[in-house]
Write a structure and sequence with these properties.
There is one protein chain. The chain is an alpha+beta fold and about 280 residues long. It folds into two domains: about 160 residues, Rossmann fold (3-Layer(aba) Sandwich); about 100 residues, Translation factors (Elongation Factor Tu (Ef-tu), domain 3), CATH 2.40.30.10. About 20% of the residues lie in helices and about 35% in strands. The chain is built from six helices and 15 strands. The strands form three sheets. A six-stranded mixed beta sheet has the order 2-3-1-4-5-6, with helices on both faces. The two termini are about 30 Å apart. The structure holds guanosine-5'-triphosphate and magnesium ion. The site of guanosine-5'-triphosphate has 20 residues, from α1.
């Protein structure tokens, strides 16, 4: 599996693209669907022609929700940088590019969306100019319309190529699972979801939770799901939901990280996300 985040200005068609690619609804909240605007992270996935599974973390473009965007992009190895043909490069295109670069993301695709509304060439040139000289300077570009379907087959092919060239995560390395949601399921207890960037997690494993402002705490994986299906074992890169024993809901939040028990924290970059 690979995990890819969206990035780009508000209303440039990120969620529409994820919906068109996966057939799943990334805007989970009724409020998001009512306002036609992403507020919190959305999750969806698809199987590409090669058989590779790609999960998307769909981020909000609105500047008010940039902290959610950061939490989504933080652990992923690649982004879909989405720029609308009819609007071109906008403030959050630039802000998201800065964030993506700062977080160490080095690959992805430039997608010129809404190409049915305007000839995409101008927006494409403008975006490539902005990307030039950054870590994402040489992104392959695909012009699409999620409405007419134009370019969508090429986008899927480009995603397959992207996934094939991304470095494989180290399954033997210490576990790093970045938490992006935590909630309670009645009868099961605390569940966290997140992106496992490296290592291997099995049901029954003891992990260590590194939480902002708290000392490390041991938790046990009681149950696990990946992409909506129960699983006994997973390796990075994966999207996972873990049911954790020994963890009150209020002791875990977005931005916390689950590690191999006893693993050194010394080399771990710490970032504290604020829930938007
Ligand atoms: N004509 C046309 N409209 C599109 C296309 N893609 C998206 N839209 C429209 O553009 C608007 C914004 O699309 P969204 O997918 O919600 O944009 P977004 O980037 O997810 O927006 P935020 O999550 O709020 O940042 C919606 O009204 C979509 O229907 C497209 O390819 N063609
Ligand atoms: Mg959206």
């Amino acid at each position: 599996m690979q995990v890819i985040a969206t990035a780009g200005h508000v209303d440039h068609g990120k969620s529409t693209l994820v919906r068109a690619l996966t057939g799943m609804e990334p805007d989970r909240w009724a409020e998001e669907r009512r306002r036609g605007m992403t507020i919190d992270l959305g999750f969806a996935w698809t199987t590409l022609a090669s058989g590779a599974v790609v999960a998307f973390v769909d981020v909000p473009g609105h500047e008010r929700f940039v902290s959610n965007m950061l939490a989504g992009v933080g652990p992923v190895p690649a982004v879909l940088m989405v720029v609308a043909a009819d609007e071109g490069w906008m403030p959050q295109s630039a802000e998201h590019l800065d964030a993506v670069e700062a977080l160490g993301v080095r690959d992805g695709l430039l997608v010129i969306s809404r190409s049915d509304l305007m000839e995409p060439e101008l927006a494409r040139e403008e975006a490539l100019e902005q990307l030039a000289g950054t870590a994402l300077g040489r992104l392959p570009t695909v012009c699409v319309s999620a409405v007419t379907g134009a370019g969508m087959a090429r986008l899927r092919a480009a995603l397959d190529e992207l996934v094939a060239r991304l470095p494989a995560a180290d399954a033997l390395a210490d576990v790093r699972l970045w938490v992006d949601r935590a909630f309670t399921i009645r009868g099961a207890g605390t569940v966290v979801t997140g992106t496992l960037t490296q290592g291997r997690v099995r049901v029954g494993d003891e992990l260590e939770l590194a939480a902002a402002g708290a000392s490390a705490r041991r938790v046990t994986v009681r149950g696990m799901q990946s992409l909506g299906e129960p699983t006994e074992e997973a390796v990075g890169v994966s999207r996972l939901a873990l049911n954790l024993r020994g963890l009150p809901r209020e002791s875990v939040a977005r931005g916390d990280v689950l590690l191999t028990a006893g693993a050194s924290l010394v080399a771990l970059p710490r970032t504290t996300w604020v829930e938007g």
